[in-house]
Every structure is written in structure tokens, then in C-alpha cells.
Amino acid sequence: MTERPSIPHEQNEPGRIRAGVVGIGWAGQQHMAAYDAAPGVDLVAIAGKEDDVRAELAAQYGVTGAYADGEELVARGDLDVISVAVPTFLHAPIAIAALRVGAHVLSEKPLARTGEEGQAMVDAAREAGRILEVTFNHRRRGDIEAVRAAVEDGTIGRPYHARAMWLRRAGIPALGSWFTSAEMAGGGPLVDLGVHVLDWTLHLMGEPRVTAVSAVTHAELGPRGLGGSGGVKHGTGSAYEVEDLAAVLLRLEGGGSIVLETSWASHRSTPDEFGITLYGTEGGADLSVVDYAPSGELTVFTGDGEERLDTRVEAPAGRGHAAVVETFLAHVADPSTWREHDGSVGLSRARLVDACYASATAGREVALDEDLRIIGGDA
Fold first, then answer.
1. CB atoms near residue 180 (< 10 Å)
2. In whole angstroms, what is the distance from residue 51 CA to residue 71 CA?
3. How much is the pTM?
4. Of 221, 238, 226, whose CA–CA distance to 176 is shortest?
5. How confident is the model at residue 3 (pLDDT cuts 50, 70, 90)?
6. Helix (H) or strand (E) holding 19
7. How much is the pLDDT for 78?
């Protein structure tokens, strides 16, 4: 287990958790608010490039440790937990450095650009004996949890097929930014939005093993400068190097299946919609969330074939990042669970995204072993 460097900083009360957040955009601010609201936690450090935003947030939360560089925040060495909410290409270096100085890490999704990079993060967590978790906040939505309840209580029986999606009409995050750089982002909507869809779908279906993947990707609008949702963020001048739509078929152990679609830009009626249709042996469920509604339209279908029993479910909004951070802190408080939470779930999602891109590039289905690595090496 890694020992912390001895670096003196302002003291907090014994037993209280010292938290830091690297990244001061929307996601980072969700982590800050959650730490600030959590009992027994002191938010003592933040890091981000934008001077005015950083200063405003430091004043808002009474943070004395405000840094332009995430490496400086990590190097102080006295933090118990660090959230990583920065562009994807920075997840691995910051998380690994934080784990090595003895901090537990909560990373924004995706875990990393690739499974190989994600494996290095998991290895660092295991070597340090510290927690590494990924912020899959969508599975903490109230409507997703309501679908999960319908699975767990047997209402829909055994799920055997799902159609899941997150589709935007004009939602490329920022043309010319790190988002559209293949090197910095690792991919387009599949790695950005699709990883959420993969996560909640596999979660709802009980984490079946994926045995094979067949995927196609398209880049029809982004390369023409179409489908953008805003100006350049931290502009890199990147050409549009990623897909703007992906479609995937996943084969599951035991014969189950998942069809997944995700897009940043596509000619469709709804500006932004995500959800899932789940088919089970005794019933089904359909969830659609339009334009980030706090709770989507959820219907549970049951009946014996002749009699149809369709039930509209009114689900609460859920608590998203706040719930994720609370669970992370609960795990930190229980050392007996640390080795269970080593980033393996996030790694499995990263490897599946790798397989999707490999399949799309090769133009064929790829088979996966039990570790979700492509059988036979490169596709």
C-alpha cells in the first residue's frame, strides 16, 4: 500500500475526509456540491484552468487550495479523496498520480480513452490498495432505478433483449475542441454517450457477459461542420476525427442481445432523447427521456398475451451525482470494501467500447473472451 508523502497543510478535524476536485466545468461542480453537502467531508482543494471560474468557485465553497494545474492539487499529498472531472485524455495520468499518493479516486466517465489505459488505472488502484470508481450517474436516475425494480421484483421476468439509445439532433459538444479529436477523446458519441447507455443497460440486465460485438460508425455531419451545439471549448483546432453516429449489436452469454444506437448529430424529430426498451419473459419496460427531463416517460408492460396490462410509472427524479458521491464516500468509510471497488466496472465498459470501434473498423463481428478482450488479437 502506497504511503503518503509528508506535506503539511491546513489541519481539519480528526476523522473528517479531505476532498479535492480536478476540473471546474459542469461535472466538476457537481462533485464539489456533493462533497460540500456531505457530512464529515471538507472540500479543501479544487483545480481548473479558467482563472475567473476557479476563483468564483473557491470563494463559493471557502476553498483555500485553488490550483490552475491538477498535478499541483494531487502533489499536495494530504487529500483522502480526489474527483477527476477533466477531458478524457487526462483521466489516466491524474487518477494514477492520485492513487499513488494514497487518495481514493472518483473519475468521470468514461474511465479512459481505451481499455489499455483503463487497465493501467485499475492496476494502480490495486497496487495502492485504494478505491477507483467511475461516475455512472445515469443509473442513479429515479426512472432507471424504477426499471431496475421491475427486473428485481420479477415483474418482467428474465430480460433477454434490449434496445437502448442516446440520440441527439445537433449535439456535437464543440466542433474543433478536444471532444472531436480522436487522440484526446478516444472517439465520438460512442465513448461519450454510449458508455452511459452500455452501463445502464448491462446494469438493468444483471451484468450478463458480452460474447461478441458488431458495430458500424458514421461521420456524415460533423466533418461538414454541421450538428454542433456550441462554440469551441479549450479549442485545439482539431479537425472532426470521430464518428457522429454509431450502431451496435451485442451478443450476450446465454443467448440475450442488446441493440444500441448513439449520436451527437442526426436528422431526427427530437433534439435530445435517451432511453431503453427492455424485453423480458414475463413483461417489458419502455423508458424515454426527452431533453434531459428529470424523469422520463416509463411504461411497464405485463399480461398473458390476451390481456394487456400497461402501467405508467411515475418515477422520482433521482439524485445523480449526489448519490454517486455519497456511495463513493460510503465505500471509502469501509476499508473492507476497498478492493472490491477497483475500477473494474469502468474497465469493462472501456473494453466494450474498444471492441465496438474494432468491429466498425474491421467491418465484421468480433468475439470476446471472458475479460472482454478480442479473441485473436486485433480485429
1. 26
2. 16
3. 0.93
4. 238
5. very low
6. strand 17-22
7. 97
- The partner residues of 132 in beta bridges, in order of sequence, read 105, 342
Q: What is the largest CA-CA distance in the chain?
A: 72
What grid cell was written down for 256? 440475450
How is residue 236 written as a grid cell?
Answer: 485545439
CATH architecture of 142-317+351-367: 2-Layer Sandwich (3.30)
Phi, psi of 31 (to 5 degrees): -65, -45
Instruction: Report the side by side order of strands in the sheet with 159-168.
Output: 308-313, 297-303, 284-290, 272-280, 159-168, 257-263, 245-252, 210-218, 366-367
Angle at 187 between CA 183 and CA 191, to 5 degrees: 130
If you write DSSP's letter for every residue of 191-231 in order, what string do you get? HHTHHHHHHHHHHHTT-PPEEEEEEEEE-SSGGGT-SB-SS
Instruction: Sketch the domain layout of the chain as residue ranges.
Output: 17-138+322-340, 142-317+351-367
Check residue 2 and give its pLDDT: 43
Give tens-digit pLDDT for 262-320.
Answer: 999 999 998 999 999 999 999 999 999 999 999 999 999 998 767 889 999 999 999 99
Q: How far apart are CA 215 and CA 259, in angstroms?
A: 10
121 with 108: CB under 8 angstroms?
Answer: no
State how far the Cα of 139 lies from the Cα of 70, in Å rounded to an integer: 28
Q: Cell digits for 379?
A: 480485429
pLDDT class for 62, splitting at 50, 70, 90?
very high
* Residue entry with cell 421484483: 153
Residue type at position 300: V
Specify the fold of 17-138+322-340. Answer: Rossmann fold (3.40.50)
Contact 276, 200 (CB under 8 A): yes
At 239 the pLDDT is 83
Rounded percentage of the chain residues whose pLDDT exceeds 70:
93
pLDDT tens string 205-226: 999 999 999 999 999 999 999 9
pLDDT average, residue stretch 27-35: 98
